[in-house]
Predict the 3D structure of the following.
Amino acid sequence: MGECPFCQIIQGKARAIIVLQNEDVIAINDINPQAPVHILFIPKRHYENVVDAMEQDGSVVERLFRAAIQYAKSSGLSDRGFRFVINCGRDGGQTVPHLHLHLLGDRQMTWPPG
Ligand code: AMP
Ligand code: ZN
């Protein structure tokens, strides 16, 4: 996946601020943050979106949530609450075709989303 920006980061070919990493998940600060905390939890293996990931290995989605919840708890974010977002495909507003879970927090969220 040479052109994929997240694969480039995972392979160390592009820079990012890494906030957490384990065997199969990397978490980076979003380059265009929509909240004071805006972190992307990304599987190190390339899956185009959450549907593909579920079809190929559902446990990868669980591992993303586990890593993100671990971060939210250890950073104190889970006391006030936070938001998870997974955009999928064109109508979902997905702009990077490599599955990622957004963790947004440290401000009051509103509904409906845009
Ligand atoms: P989505 O619209 O759900 O596909 O989200 C893609 C997210 O990735 C956006 O919030 C972008 O700001 C973010 N993003 C794109 N390129 C980078 C990058 N090189 N480093 C960090 N975040 C990025
Ligand atoms: Zn990729």
About this structure: The longest strand covers residues 37-43.
